[in-house]
Amino acid sequence: MQWTPPYDPKQYDLEPLLTRQGLTADWFTTDDGDPYGPTNVARWSSHQVTKLVPFRYRTAVGQRPELHQWIAALAAEARTEQGRRGAPVASVNRGPSLLLLGPTGVGKTYEAYGALRELGVTGIVARWTIVTAADLYAQLRPRHGIDSETEFQRYAKASILLVDDLGAGGKISEFTEDINFRLVNHRYENELPTLITSNVVPQELSARLGDRVASRLTEMCQRIVITGQDRRRQVAA
Questions:
Q1: Residue 169 pLDDT level (bands cut at 50, 70, 90)
Q2: Closest by alpha carbon to 126, among 151, 166, 158?
Q3: Which positions ≥6 away from 186 have C-beta within 8 Å?
Q4: Fewer CB within 10 Å, N side or C side of the chain?
């Protein structure tokens, strides 16, 4: 684990996240000289997360209690595995998944990045891979000089994966249905934690994602349905 020098959590708007975890800025900035200690791991993880979060969501703080519970479950699983293996740090490798459903603009992506940021301050290592569904399909389409299967495995085997906007774009094609199934099935079978957002309403999951994908998502994911108006349009108005 690389040592990360103490820095002011205000620099990355981390204080609300620390508060949600029952932690303080003094704890976060404590330097006990141990690169594997929880405070250094929290600083290192938060710094890595900052590189991944888009600028628009740089201050995101998830508000849904289910997100907080999901983070707690991931952290507990990571610490249990650390003890079992005698590992120097607790890392997210296995655990539950989460599905955020709701119409466009209600804050699903904001909540997802809030969860990503909050997990970062816990002192647990979470090596995120992040992609929108549209970018995933674009990157996996066969093209010259690119090994699509290698690209696919990067997402399928990610320690913890965020897929944003799964099911967007209307009717699925044979290609996207195959990608959805292979990705979800691999993560389902191996209990790899996955955070998915989608504007598909619950009763249309099968029609938009395919029966096999919808079945696995139902079992592997806790479902959170977010309702409301399109916040982007409200801001524009």
A1: low
A2: 158
A3: 156, 157, 192
A4: C
- List the Cα angle 32/36/37 in 5-degree steps: 40
Rounded CA separation 199/105 (Å): 9
pLDDT given for residue 184 in this prediction = 97
Between 11 and 116, the more confident residue is 116
Q: 34 and 89 in contact (C-beta within 8 Å)?
A: no
Given this model, what pLDDT does residue 144 score? Answer: 80
| Per-residue pLDDT, 229 | 78
pLDDT, tens only, 119-154: 999 999 999 999 999 999 999 988 887 888 999 999
The SS3 call for residue 155 is helix
Structural element, H or E, at residue 37: none
Q: State how far the Cα of 168 lies from the Cα of 172, in Å rounded to an integer.
A: 9
C-alpha–C-alpha distance, residues 114 and 59, integer Å: 8
Q: Which of 127, 119, 125, 6 is nearest to 61 (CA)?
A: 119
What tokens appear for 111 in the block?
A: 């909540």
The residue whose two tokens read 């959805």 is 180
| CA distances to 20, 156, 193 from 69, in Å | 11, 24, 14
Phi and psi angles of residue 116, each rounded to the nearest 5 degrees, phi first: -60, -45
Rounded to 10 degrees, the C-alpha dihedral 22/220/52/62 comes to: -40
| Nearest-angstrom CA–CA distance, 147 and 160 | 22
2 vs 213 pLDDT, higher one: 213
